[in-house]
Amino acid sequence: MLTGRKTWRGFAPFVGGALGVAIGGAAPRDSSGYRFGTKVHHRPQRRPALVPRPAPSVRGDFRLVLWKLNYPVSYKVPASDGSRVLPVTAALTEWTSHPWATIGVGWTF
C-alpha cells in the first residue's frame, strides 16, 4: 500500500459521522397542524470491516439518524372521541432515532 498499513490484524474499523439538512419546502401543514419544515440532522456511524490480503472483503455499516421533531399544540387537544395524539404532560419537542445496518462484500487488491 502506498500510504502504509490501514488494518489491524485484518480489521479496518471506522468511526465517523455526517451532518445534513432536510428541507420540507413550503408545503402547507397537514390537517393536524403538523409541518415537517427544515431540519438539521446528525448521523453518527461505526463500521467494522474485515480486510484480508488481496481477496474478498466484508464490510458492515451501522448508522443512526437523529431527527428533532416539533409538534403543534393541537396534538394535546382532545378529538371528538376524547383521544389525543400526545398526552397533556408530553413535551412538544422530541428527538427520534432511526438506526440501520448494511453489509457489503467486495474485492481488495
Topology:
Elements: E1 14-23, E2 38-47, E3 49-50, E4 56-70, E5 93-107
Antiparallel strand pairs: 1-2, 2-4, 3-4, 4-5
How would you explain this protein's 3D organization?
With about 110 residues, this protein is an all-beta fold. It has a domain at about 35-105. Helices cover about 0% and strands about 50% of the residues. The chain has no helices and five strands. The mean pLDDT is about 75.
Give the tally of β-strands: 5
- Characterize the main sheet: 5 strands, antiparallel
Count of helical stretches = 0
Strand content: over 45%
Radius of gyration, in angstroms, nearest whole number: 22 Å
Distance between the termini: 10 Å
Stretches where pLDDT is under 50 for at least 5 consecutive residues are: none
Q: Look at the structure and give the mean pLDDT.
A: 76
- N-to-C order of helices and strands: EEEEE
Which outline best applies?
Answer: elongated
Q: What structural class do helix, strand and pairing data support? A: mainly beta
Helix content: under 10%
Question: In short, what is this structure?
Answer:
With 109 residues, this protein is mainly β. The protein is 0% helix and 48% strand.
What keywords describe this structure?
single chain; mainly beta; 5 strands; 0% helix
